[in-house]
Specification:
By secondary structure, the chain is an all-alpha fold. The chain is built from four helices and no strands. It has a domain of 50 residues: Arc Repressor Mutant (Orthogonal Bundle), CATH 1.10.1220.
Length: 72
């Protein structure tokens, strides 16, 4: 009976659409930039303006994209 339940779960999972997560970023900080302490600075700024680090990073990326895209 356990085999049957496992098979039912597998069949059910196969029918469910796969969810792709496209809303997460992982940022690598190069060694040469670590001396500028970007993470520590983000933490401090986030506390000051009552925003999460994620909010600040996404906001910075959007500002950069807007600036670069408007150069044309």
């Amino acid at each position: 009976m356990a085999g049957r339940k496992a098979r039912e779960t597998t069949e059910k999972e196969l029918r469910m659409p796969r969810k792709e997560v496209l809303d997460k970023l992982s940022i690598y900080i190069p060694q040469r930039k670590k001396s500028e302490k970007p993470v520590e600075r983000l933490i401090k700024l986030g506390e000051k303006v009552d925003r999460s680090i994620n909010y600040l990073v996404v906001d910075a990326i959007i500002q950069y994209l807007n600036r670069e895209e408007n150069k044309n």
